[in-house]
Amino acid sequence: MTSHIKSSILGSSVSIPITNGRFNLGTWQGVYLCEHRNRGGSRRLVVTLNGETE
C-alpha cells in the first residue's frame, strides 16, 4: 500500500487536549505510533501548543 493511501486512512496529525499538564483522554483512548516500513529512519516531531496559561 502506498504512503498516500496510508496517510489518507490514518491521517498525519492529531490534536490532544491537555488539562492541568496531563493528556485529557477518555477511558479507552490512547496515543499510538504505527511504523509502516521495514527500516524506519529518524523522525522529527513537531508540537504546536495553543491555549491559555492560568
From TrEMBL:
PROSITE patterns: UPF0047. It comes from the Bacteria. It holds the Pfam family YjbQ. Belongs to the UPF0047 family. This is Secondary thiamine-phosphate synthase enzyme. The lineage of its organism: Bacteria, Pseudomonadati, Balneolota, Balneolia, Balneolales.
